[in-house]
Amino acid sequence: MTVLVAAALLLAGCRSSSGGSTSATAPQPVVNVNAAAPPSTSGSASGNTSPAKPPRPLARSVPVRLEIPAIGVDTPVVKLGLAADGSVQVPPIEAHAPAGWYQGSPTPGQVGPSVILAHVTVGQYGDGVFLHLSRLRPGDRIVARLADGASAAFTVDRVQTVAKAHFPTSAVYGDVDRPELRLITCGGPRNSDGSGYLDNVVVYASLAAPAAGTTH
Length: 216
Hints:
Layout: H1 3-9, E1 63-68, E2 73-80, E3 99-102, E4 112-117, E5 141-146, E6 151-163, H2 169-173, E7 179-190, E8 197-207
């Protein structure tokens, strides 16, 4: 993914109470080289435990709904492409605005980081679907319902609130060798002029193994 696309994604969910964007031009992100990689699925470092078998990746199928029980999210998911200026589209500014899946990323359950973004506020309409995203904790469950009828269940590995100037681009968008999910919105304090937010909230999650007796 190009730096331009990655930068544009940082603006997802960053609408002010007046409905304006945080910026007309996507800023160039600064890669935080010290950002920790998502937790490994390998076994104990002592060598006494065999590594757990990773969940089998799912076939490509676009997400149509996202459920996050811990924070009361149950929302449709729309497709997001690129705007005319090369930036990533964001979900519409409207009442009950849905989450959006960036089509340039893998679908949930495929190998790689699938990217879903949503607003924290939606202008005159008030709270956005990802208002409470920062409240998620490791172990919380996220379920993406797919167009083919399958479901991709993820477990939250970590939640990060980071200044936009130090956004960990590589950790968020870089290649990984297993199915993972990234949820992105804005957070932290508002800009001094009230036009947006200074931080991004990023949730890192990995595909969970299906429960016994179930299939994807």
